[in-house]
Amino acid sequence: MKILDEIRQLTDSLQLAELGARPPVISALTGIHRAKAIQIFREVHGVVPKGSLHVTADWIFKSRRQNLVCTQFLIRYQGHLENGDGHIAAFIRAYQELEAKAQLSIDHAWVVIQEHDLKEIKLVKCRVCYTQYLLHNLDLQIDHKCPQCSGKGNIQLNQIPASHPIALAA
């Protein structure tokens, strides 16, 4: 590995750790060894996190708000990729731009990307308002309606900031 590539890898790892990414996520995104990711996390936070990561997309669909936040993150991520950012840069930028970080940890954001890449979840357009939203791949719903138009949950469209891609897509 070239020294500049190694520096870039460590810089990305450090930035991810500062955003709160746990060692398995740092390792998966940057390709550094797990032990090195643990060392970086420990240096940034003073401790090593305990517990396991969520590895399924089930939590995305627990509430309409959670689905909305995850959808906004995925749309931003894809936009950065389309604009030429690399995978890690697109991931970091999309997360940094997210206004609802309290509802989506960086580790959960990584799960959204993983589940989308594995085709476990997909973006579909609502047939009523044309807003994109996340749908589980096993959902056999043919008549696609977003959570807002289907009346599920408690988020009102006027609660979505106009600057969000979801609001702009409607």
Structural description of this entry:
By secondary structure, the chain is mainly α. The chain has 8 helices and 2 strands. A two-stranded antiparallel sheet has the order 1-2. α1 runs antiparallel to α2, α1 (3-18) packs across α3 and α4 (64-82) packs across α5 (87-97). The protein is elongated.
Order of H and E elements:
HHHHHHEEHH
Strand order of the largest sheet: 1-2
Strand content: 5-15%
Evaluate the radius of gyration: 17 Å
What is the end-to-end distance? 46 Å
Stretches where pLDDT is under 50 for at least 5 consecutive residues are: 153-161, 163-170
Shape type:
elongated
| Helix content estimate | 40-55%
Total discrete domains: 2
The biggest sheet, with number of strands, parallel, antiparallel or mixed sense and barrel status, is: 2 strands, antiparallel
Overall mean confidence score, pLDDT:
84
Summarize the structure.
With 170 residues, this protein is mainly α.
Keywords:
170 residues; 51% helix; mainly alpha
Topology, please?
Layout: H1 3-18, H2 23-30, H3 34-45, H4 64-82, H5 87-97, H6 106-117, E1 121-125, E2 132-136, H7 147-150, H8 165-169
Antiparallel strand pairs: 1-2
Helix pairs in contact: 1-2, 1-3, 2-3, 4-5
